[in-house]
Amino acid sequence: MNAEVPETARLSVVIPALNAASQLPAALRSLGAEGGGLLDLEMVVSDGGSTDGTPDIARDHGAVVVASDRGRGLQLHAGALRARGDFLLFLHADTRLSGDWRQAVAAFVKDPGAGGKAGFFRFVLDDCAPPARRLERIVAWRCRRFGLPYGDQGLLLSRTLYDRVGGFRPLPLMEDVDLVRRIGRGRMRPLDADAVTSAVRYRRDGYLSRSARNLLCLSLYGVGVPPRALTRIYG
Predict the structure, then answer these.
(1) For the packed helices 207-222 and 130-146, what is the interaxial angle rounded to 10 degrees?
(2) Comparing C-alpha atoms, which of 160, 153, 155, 151 is closest to residue 9?
(3) Contacts of 215 (CB under 8 A, 6+ apart)
(4) Which terminus of the chain, N or C, has less C-beta within 10 A?
């Protein structure tokens, strides 16, 4: 049964951050100050103990700051508890949304069945190198084939659905995969806008090496290896 969707919805964007002073401003600026067809846009930054001024930067950009223990799963959970929106959008601190993101979210929210679905953006890297384009195509295929977006694509869902499936668990890694699996492939919907993510890790480690490491972590998690044990592999 589909959850009831308010005629005019409120949106809370929840961003986990840890020493993200160099990346967070661009993420917050990409959201803008207006909700674009939504009644209200609330930005919540869940800080895991930053020492570089991240909380002050978040407040300067109009975000509410929540103090949390370190760990993306813990931080996302803490941010969601503070959020007041009818819909929640979880976004990484090194990800910027394209200028048409509001229209994409508004179209999703207006769908009569939106309360029982989850949306994700197109994965785009801020790198013009050919390996970046190849990886983007692979991610697009993974999402089509398996309905498995990662957290760097953003995740949009109603508060009702978030609470129904149990929200984020306190995992140090794979918290996004864990939640998406509980939501279920049949309820995942692509959003017609880009989530532009930093390619720093890929440029540093090499596209092939970084992608292989991510796939290894996903495979090991799939056969039951605890996320905490995977943090040493993930790097």
Answers:
(1) 20
(2) 160
(3) none
(4) N
The dihedral over CA atoms of 94, 147, 172, 71, expressed in degrees to the nearest 10, equals 40
pLDDT given at position 3: 46
> d(Cα 26, Cα 28) in Å, to the nearest integer?
5
Which residue type sits at 200? V
pLDDT of residue 36 exceeding 70, the answer is: no
Give the amino acid at 81.
L
pLDDT tens digits along 211-223: 999 999 989 988 9
Q: In what order do the strands lie in the sheet with 95-97?
A: 64-67, 40-47, 10-17, 87-90, 155-158, 118-125, 188-197, 95-97
Q: What is the pLDDT of residue 22?
A: 95
Name the CATH architecture for the domain at 10-204.
Alpha-Beta Complex (3.90)
Give the Cα separation of 54 and 19 in Å (integer).
6
pLDDT exceeds cutoff 90 at 234:
no
